Amino acid sequence: MTEYRLSGAELEAAFQTRVDDERRIEPKDWMPDAYRKNLVRQISQHAHSEIIGMQPEGNWITRAPTLKRKMILLAKVQDEGGHGLYLYSAAETLGASREDMIEALHQGRAKYASIFNYPTLTWADIGMIGWLVDGAAIVNQISLQRTSYGPYSRAMIRICKEESFHQRQGFEILMALAAGSEAQKAMAQDALNRWWWPTLMMFGPHDSESAHSAQSMQWKIKRKSNDELRQDFVDQTVPQADFLGLKIPDPELRWNEDRGHYDFGEIDWDEFWTVVSGNGLCNRERLARHRKAHQDGKWVREAMRAYEEKRRARAA
Ligand code: FAQ
Predict the structure, then answer these.
(1) Among candidate residues 185, 198, 78, the one with its CA nearest the CA of residue 129
(2) Does 231 sit in the ligand 1 pocket, CB within 6 Å?
(3) What whole-number distance in Å separates Cα of residue 308 and Cα of residue 165?
(4) Fewer CB under 10 Å: which end of the chain, C or N?
């Protein structure tokens, strides 16, 4: 019997049909190299964001105002570490090695979310991270639950469940501050003034400027565009700010009856690219701390590797 091998073009067409039919791509399925590469890029950067994102909140664990708040914050920061681990594992199913991914982060070849390069100056900032940053992350991740790559999609389903709890705890911190003294209300407003615009930047450049969007949408890695997600976030968050009695720092923000959405002002894209290119307020500090933690943990990785080798040698 003659063996018939599919050509590259036929394999790509079959792959696209599978994606279009909403069937998930699994690790052992054939996939275009560029699909694999794009996914490793996005998933590893997502993982780095979760891990680096532990730092701004970790900064407040020892200073949380009550024992209960401390316990909640500790659990939340641990959850973010767990999200990073699910995501590194999802990237590993594509053949990426953990060491290479970490090295790319340390060398500045791999990015992480710009938002985590802003400092957490007051307790209200911890409320803002939960309410706004987790809120924005959820809007993005809910759409990623339907991403075409199975392991990434399944990680997102689990992560979204935990993120909604994170968002609520942030909102609850702010409800307490908004119902507190004048000084507490002012602290919450000051935090909103500093976190609003960087949060809108989390969704990335405008669609017209987004390098990866067109291909990622065709492959259904991304299900909604950067601008669509940003609009969803603004629409759902403005009424929450009203409820808290806080003012969003955007003079152009208003409800547009015709569009059925809020109009809002333009992001300072110079600031965005400054932060993304490594020159934000905390970029150097965040990376230096990650490098040190990684170096400090070297002996643990070596001990685990030695243990595993010994166990295998005994079993052989
Ligand atoms: N920051 O062509 P696009 C969280 C880069 S998780 C830094 O539009 P794409 C949980 C982009 O990588 C937050 N860089 O890119 C938490 C690309 O550069 P490259 C993270 C950014 O991938 C809460 C270039 O610009 N979530 O917060 C940013 O199609 C609280 C061109 O951009 C995810 O990662 C940015 N904001 O769309 C943890 C979700 N935006 O790679 C702790 C998954 C863009 O060519 C505490 N990722 N860039 O060198 C995504 O959905 C997408 O990757 C986007 C960007 C939407 C972020």
Answers:
(1) 198
(2) no
(3) 36
(4) N
Q: pLDDT tens digit string along 150-197? A: 999 999 999 999 999 999 999 999 999 999 999 999 999 999 999 999
The answer to whether the Cα torsion of 287, 288, 290, 295 is positive or negative is: positive
Ligand 1 contact, 276 CB (< 6 A): yes
pTM (2 decimals)? 0.96
pLDDT score of 88: 98
Q: Following CA atoms 87, 93, 96, 98 in sequence, which dihedral angle do they give, to the nearest 10 degrees?
A: 50
Q: Does 113 contact ligand 1 (Cβ within 6 A)?
A: yes
115-148: b (≥16 Cβ within 10 Å) or e: bbbbebebbbbbbbbbbbbbbbbbbbbbbbbebb
Beta strand spans in the chain (E): 254-256, 261-263
Kindly give the number of the ligand 1 atom that is closest to the alpha carbon of 43.
Answer: 43
**Nearest alpha carbon, ligand 1 atom 33:** 46
For residue 297, the CA-to-ligand 1 centroid distance in Å is 27
Cβ(111) – ligand 1 distance below 6 Å: yes
**Residue 25 bridge partners (DSSP):** 149
CA distances from 250 to 41, 58, 117, 253, 265 (A): 33, 29, 22, 6, 6
User: Ligand 1: which of 49, 152, 158, 233 to mutate, judged by most atoms within 8 Å of the beta carbon?
Assistant: 49
87 lines ligand 1 (CB under 6 A): no
Among 204, 180, 27, which residue's Cα sits nearest to residue 114?
A: 204
d(CA 76, CA 165): 9
Residue 2's pLDDT is what? Answer: 66
